[in-house]
Amino acid sequence: MEIAINAALTIVGLGMLCFGGHWLVSGGVAISKKLGISKLIIGMTVVAYGTSTPELAASIAAAGEHSAIILGNVIGSNIANIGMVIGIAAIIAPLVVKKATIKKEVPIMIGVSLLIVVLSIDGEISQYDGILLIFSLIIFTVFIYKDAKKQRKEIADEIFQKKDIYSRSLGLIAIGIVLLYVGAILTVDNAVILAQSFGLSERIIGITVIAIGTSLPELITSVIAIRRGHTDIGIGNIIGSNIYNILMIMGIGATIAGVSIASEVFVDYAIMIGFGLVLLIVMKTGLISRRIGIGLVLAYFIFLTTTFFIKIL
């Protein structure tokens, strides 16, 4: 009975993370559109930041005593974002990819994945490593900001005249933050209890249950954006989220308290980078077809079942 309650509370927490992330994104996108920023930049900044907040909230709640959850969450979310989110989105509607995305953003995503592997070689992502990741995040944000300035549209002074739009958007952002905070505590605390009950490691829970749960905002946002014809927002969201998951979430989590690295994590790293390389190769064709989408989802399902069930057996 107690396990059922913990499972229910975990689901409630994940639901709050999803709704919180959705409302945070809705408020941020409304403001960004009024500022005349391109869809790809919106996807890689406001939407990516927003949909990464569930991972951030869960990781901050897990920092210190449950640091294995942070690592599992980051790796698992990055794999889920490509295998589950892009896969399902491509099945719904084939994704047209811009060449600029292949030349800059995807290589950056793979580059930061390699960076975290290098930082893990000594068996720990220390607080100093966390600071380095946050510094890298600042550099990446400046890069995106400069890119946004180049693409920015000319807008009239009427941007700041519709105060009701800004009030509503800021209200959604505030509600989203509250839901994320409460949802993160519920998710992490009850997921840890479930892990202990079934004899699973916190890393496994982080890389499967929590990673899938905190990736739902990316899935929902990307599918909605793509169905409305905003492919740039959908793809930018995923690539940006994967970059922020490593630089921001792992950076903040490690800065609060260092994260220990077990030897099996390097296998997870290899799978994460593998999914990234597959995405890069596929995107060079300029189209992510339904067939490729099915392949990505199938590959993710195999990874998930192998990771989860081998541990149980």
Explain this structure to me?
The protein has 313 residues and is mainly alpha-helical. The chain has a single domain (2-154, 164-312), classed as Up-down Bundle (A middle domain of Talin 1), CATH 1.20.1420. Helices cover 83% and strands 3% of the residues. The protein has helices at 2-34, 39-62, 67-92, 99-120, 127-151, 163-198, 202-227, 231-256, 265-283, 290-312; strands spanning 95-96, 124-125, 259-260, 287-288. Strands 1-4 form a two-stranded antiparallel ribbon. Helix 1 packs parallel to helix 7 (202-227). The two termini are 24 Å apart. The relative contact order is 0.24. The model is unreliable at 153-161 (pLDDT under 50).
Mean pLDDT: 77
Q: How helical, in percent, are the residues? A: over 70%
* The CATH architecture: Up-down Bundle
For this structure, the CATH topology is A middle domain of Talin 1
Order of helices and strands: HHHEHEHHHHEHEH
In the sheet with the most strands, the strands line up as 1-4
Determine the structural class based on helices, strands and strand pairing. mainly alpha
Rg from alpha-carbon coordinates: 19 Å
Write the layout of secondary structure elements.
Layout: H1 2-34, H2 39-62, H3 67-92, E1 95-96, H4 99-120, E2 124-125, H5 127-151, H6 163-198, H7 202-227, H8 231-256, E3 259-260, H9 265-283, E4 287-288, H10 290-312
Antiparallel strand pairs: 1-4, 2-3
Helix pairs in contact: 1-2, 1-6, 1-7, 2-3, 2-6, 2-7, 2-8, 3-7, 3-8, 3-9, 3-10, 4-8, 4-9, 5-8, 6-7, 7-8
